[in-house]
């Protein structure tokens, strides 16, 4: 007895005798699809956890995967070992399971891949699903198959090893990436900014915008772009994305367009993954039809931050989906970046191990120096190590500055440490330098804004914090920037605005302690004492340690500013204790 798995149209699982096996779990169905579309039906546990439970911490994701596998095995009323797993990977046995996407062309089903399936909150899975659906649609429409259902292997576009005369469906071609040259690298090729104008006299302006775009991208020292010699040819030559890939071995291509029509103008960007030209990200911003270069520059800065975040995420996931290569330094760098951005204690521990291994390969690598400083600083913060013990981190931050003086991250690390040490004047100078080095760097502006109010100048915090928010509309840590802005507004006595910001943070992060502190203080400042008591009770009343722990890590240079931040909450806390003391 075998199993049939249908992934086109409404997902179905059944026995070859016609008996249906009900798929009641969305994530169970998604798990089967992730396995069935792997080249050999096998995925790593880490990759699966990242796709389906990326919003949870590591231990919860591991437990959820184990539970889902157990539930799937119980569905089949036969002693079939069709799902095989060990400590590192999970495999669907393709000798026991027939999958429609792997069938012959003449039997190719119709319908959308995983029709109607979505998993809210799991962006990694949604990105994967969107990409696979696009690949299947493009393969169907490409006309690469003859009437007999045989693969048209002309041009070497066939994916994976295929014997002569094999009968594969068009869908099977989309199971693994197109065969790529061994030298293909994670490089970004930037094409010239195109324009649709009534006059050719504005062509020099387009070239100036292109140069500004290239200059902005190259400030991101970790992101590999074209070398100057290749960039000159690519930017100002009449080439397309395929040519850019061929010239630069680029996996990613950025297209940009500036269009003016009457009284309106739009600057748009599209990040493509080659060779299928899969759209990974796109954005457009209105600009004044007068083409003010300063306004366009600000739009470019924002776009560069957004496209770099997408590039980073794609490469991290590409590397995490394959087996580690201990001798490959580039592989190690992307894995380290992945674990650092997960921002959990478990991932920090994994990042530390990978950093130790990477330094054995190249102890003088500039990017490793940046990642080491990044790791020790934020691991220190996650573990809430006392601020007075952070002096030992300074040499690592200085080593990052020396490793690449043009990298904005080095001064950022020094600025963060000096802020923690209450040397806020020094911190501000470092952070201003970080902003100068990379005007696309939202973290530099958010920490600069915080340093200003910690130095007793909350009025100077607003501009850099609002700029940070403008640069990072999709940043998963945007709530942190909002919290800093809310703190500055509260210290300025702008209670209504502080309350609005606190409520905005709570929409996405209801347990963020600072948001509750801001809400309580703002309501006290507005004279709404009953609502302030309710705000306090939602999180802080029974866990005063959360309140004290958060405030202990806010390094104001002068304690009088900390008292302002405590004033409203302390008033409510004292009032809260009165009925309890009376009852006691």
UniProtKB/TrEMBL annotation:
Source organism superkingdom: Bacteria
Each TPR repeat, start to end: 442-475
Gene Ontology molecular-function annotations: DNA binding
Gene3D superfamilies cross-referenced by the UniProt entry: Tetratricopeptide repeat domain, Winged helix-like DNA-binding domain superfamily/Winged helix DNA-binding domain
GO process annotations (BP): regulation of DNA-templated transcription
UniProt keywords, alphabetically: Plasmid, TPR repeat
PANTHER family: TRANSCRIPTIONAL REGULATOR REDD-RELATED
Protein name in UniProt: Transcriptional regulator, SARP family
Organism: Novosphingobium aromaticivorans (strain ATCC 700278 / DSM 12444 / CCUG 56034 / CIP 105152 / NBRC 16084 / F199)
